[in-house]
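An instance noted here:
***
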Amino acid sequence: MEGCCRRTAGSSAPSQLLAALAQGNDAVWVQHLLPKLKAHNSLGSVALSCKQLRALCLSNANALRLSSSNTQQQHELLQQLPARFPACSTVQYTAVDGPAIGHFADLLPALVRLPQLSQLKLKLTTQAASAAIPAAYAVDTARLQLSGVTSLSLTAHRAWAEADGAGYAWRALGRFTQLQALTVAFTTQSPEFQATQLSALSTLSGNLRSLRITCPGFKAEEQQQDYNALSSLSSLTQLVLPYAAGATGVPAISSCSSLLRLSLSGPAGRRSAGPTLGVAECAALELLTQLTYLRLTSIPCNQTLLSALQRLQQLQVLQVDGLKAADALPALARLPQLKSIAGEWQESAGAAAAAGTTLQLTAVRYLEVAGTCAPFQTFPGVKTVLLFNTCQPGDLTALSQHCKQLQLLGMGHTWRMEASTLAPAAPVAQRTAAVASLAALRHLRSLFLSVNCDAEISALAAASQLRQLTLFVPTTDRTTRGCSTIGLAALGLLRSLRQLTLQLPGLVLTAEPVCGLMSSMQRFESVEVCVVPGQEEGVDAGLELALERHIRVPAAFKVASNKNWPRFIHRRSINPGLGGGILVGN
């Protein structure tokens, strides 16, 4: 079991001291701190202080993560939970199989005595369809004994639509009438979710405000869905659902007239090829006049949808794919509260630019751009832009020319090891000019850039206003790309830079070049280097060489190896100011 401590804003002298001590490695404690504490007979006081600090952290923990693997046969420890975690408001319980779900009942005597408990999360990692029945039992027992719980999250590998487990879990959820928020998340690749099962939740209509059903592997073309059950959930203010082509009953969503947030998701990755909303669906959508947040994932835009969107005068956040500037911009310009737009644009840069010359959406502050090119001249007040596709140099130049208030430029696609921000086929001169144009964005503080060559890195050195930089060196066509460790040294010219992250799947690192790189980064406060497995030793050797040569290394330095880019990162940290040893940890 694990407690999650509450974090508070601000900094104090004790917290700064703890942060400083955290920089020290085992060698520092053994060689320097412990002998001094022992000489002053202070070891007992330190141990007592640590014990008191631990008790303080536990008493302020607002969340607990429990697992069937570490709670069975721990009755005495479970009975101590209320005394040790009096502020706990959220409990997550993970069960690895059907019988383990039944052990959840063993926790209830302790959970009942948590005075602040209001949120319960049940995660069922088993893939057995028969787990639906014990899951229903767990939900029912929680309902009967945990009267203060108003938020429930149920995560499962398989939908309850299979075999004899079909109705048990959904009916159990429907009996949890005090719920104000319900999340059901299926993690399997192709769950057989049926929207008709939502009818079991009609008994929650009096209190339920938030309903989230997520199915990442939902196959819309294979499902004949009926959403008429939504008509009984009129008190909802937030709704998240998968959306299927040819679904019936979607207009019932108009009964949820208090909705503030609505998310409908088509098949993952389809974007403009996903199912569309028809005339009846759009007519229902335009009646939800209180909506402030609308995400239509992999649901392409059309004229009918654009007409409906114009009625949503309170809308602040919009995601929709298949945007064409000539059609979409006039409709979006009629939404005075719109601040965030995400989606895939489908026109050439020239067509987008022509469509955007006569309109300006000055209230928009956030853009997520996929597809070809967004009409950046339409959004002069935007402060954050995320690009999800490799773009042409002209796109980046247009962004620098028209979006003068930009503070953060990110690259949503660059977690792919082979992707670069600018198309590698574009002439080098155009690419370097586009990167250099970022220097004109005087408010730009944070940048994520995936580069093709050292020339682009050198051009980036002109952006002296940057304070945070993540630089990515991809792997595609490694033999033809011109990125090198020596080229990275140009980043030392960024005089305002404080935090640097280097993601280097496309570079082979050895001691001498790394040492030279460190000498160019002495002014930075924080540096993190992420490499492919096996390359950490080259970075470590370079750091040791830099220390031997008395080169100042950034106080916060981390080396990460990514075994499954980008999921699992194992970190190493070094503190040269306290002896230069390496501390290995997760």
Notes: Residues 43-59 form the longest helix (17 residues). Confidence is low (pLDDT under 50) at residues 1-19, 566-586.
